[in-house]
């Protein structure tokens, strides 16, 4: 039996293992795990916020946030080639907006501030717009107005 045959078998097995790690959300096989949190910080007496987030192969469905359910979080493994992309559609009264909430393992989004080592992207929805927040290496939370509601 040649070494070549062993290598072929191992490569063949790896092809099966790699796609699987996307399904093991609690435990990423070799890739880093990320968390995205959406927080409703809109005035309590205003319209209910509806959020629908999805990636190419994971649809999180409609989420309704309010003063009693202020946030939701999901976790996923970045794929080896950094191709994971999640976008969300937000509806608040007559306003709505859609954008990528995660498309970059370094900054959450490509044009986000450079925060090395972050694994949690926090989107806080306020009446003036969407704040992207990170925990820095010291565990401090920093957030900034990233997108405004389209008028
Ligand atoms: C994915 O992103 C990380 C963090 O920015 C980087 O270190 C790594 O080299 C990237 N991998 C690929 C395959 O581009």
TrEMBL record:
UniProt record, GO biological process: rejection of self pollen
Signal sequence, renumbered to the chain: 1-26
Record has Nucleus as a keyword: no
Primary site of residence: secreted
Pfam families: Self-incomp_S1
Keywords of the record: Secreted, Self-incompatibility, Signal
UniProt xrefs under InterPro entries: Self-incomp_S1 (IPR010264)
Subcellular location: Secreted
PANTHER family found in the cross-reference section: PTHR31232, S-PROTEIN HOMOLOG
Protein name (database record): S-protein homolog
Native source species: Capsicum annuum (Capsicum pepper)
């Amino acid at each position: 039996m040649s070494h070549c045959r062993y290598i072929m078998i191992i490569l063949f097995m790896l092809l099966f293992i790699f796609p699987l790690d996307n399904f093991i959300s609690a435990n990423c096989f070799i890739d880093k795990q990320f968390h995205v949190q959406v927080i409703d910080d809109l005035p309590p007496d205003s319209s209910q916020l509806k959020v629908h987030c999805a990636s190419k192969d994971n649809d999180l469905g409609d989420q309704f946030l309010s003063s009693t359910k202020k946030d939701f979080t999901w976790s996923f493994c970045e794929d080896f080639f950094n191709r994971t992309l999640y976008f969300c559609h937000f509806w608040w009264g007559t306003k709505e907006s859609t954008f990528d909430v995660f498309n970059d393992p370094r900054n959450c989004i490509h044009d986000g501030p450079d925060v090395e080592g972050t694994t949690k992207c926090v989107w806080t929805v306020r009446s003036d717009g969407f704040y992207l927040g990170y925990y820095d290496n010291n565990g401090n939370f920093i957030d900034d107005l990233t997108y405004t509601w389209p008028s």
